[in-house]
Amino acid sequence: MTLSIEKVTAQGRVSVPFRVVSSGGGKNLTVHYVAAAADLLEDKAVRQQKVRLFLEWMTVEVKRQGQGSHLTTLAQGQPKILESFEEQYIHNPPGDYEIAARYTPVSRGDHWTGTLVSAPLRVRISDGPDFFDLLKERMGKGQESRK
After folding, report:
1. Considering only CA atoms, which of 97, 93, 99 is closest in space to residue 124?
2. What angle do CA 16, 19, 21 make, to 5 degrees?
3. How far is CA 104 from the centre of its chain?
4. pLDDT tens-digit series, residues 78-102
5. What pLDDT, on a 0 to 100 scale, did the predictor assign at position 44?
């Protein structure tokens, strides 16, 4: 099965990059299901810049809390941290999108061999906090509970 996600704009539709987290299974030998969640991906340069800004914020917080040894560890691991956070970063850009699924069976024989295409699902994403905004908020609440 494949998914397609397109952003709907006044100029038309544009395919957008996304990643899928899915799980599937079946009820019996003839009934199958797949559950999927999709994260829309901002441009890699945007994601990397968001990580750099978060690491700068984290460095200031570590200094403010007087945890210098953690700052050294953070600085030494920055390329790996940058890569790790960039892969985890989620901020679904606001806009209108259409999602469609396409299924073509891979087994041949007595099975149906056509392609099934779903009706597009229209989704509107509103602007809101991104991954790092939420993480900062959670970290701030954690600090308050330790006081």
Report:
1. 97
2. 145
3. 26
4. 677 777 778 888 888 899 999 998 8
5. 84
> What is d(CA 52, CA 68) in angstroms, rounded to the nearest whole number?
19
Write the CB contacts of 23 (distance below 8 Å, at least 6 apart in sequence).
Answer: 34, 35
Lookup result for tokens 């800004």:
53
Specify whether the CB–CB gap between 95 and 8 falls below 8 A: yes
In whole angstroms, give the CA distance from residue 123 to residue 90: 17
d(CA 55, CA 82): 8
Token match 């990643």: residue?
19
pTM: 0.65
Contacts of 36-39 with C-beta under 8 Å, sequence gap 24+, read 36/3, 38/3, 38/5, 38/99, 39/90, 39/92
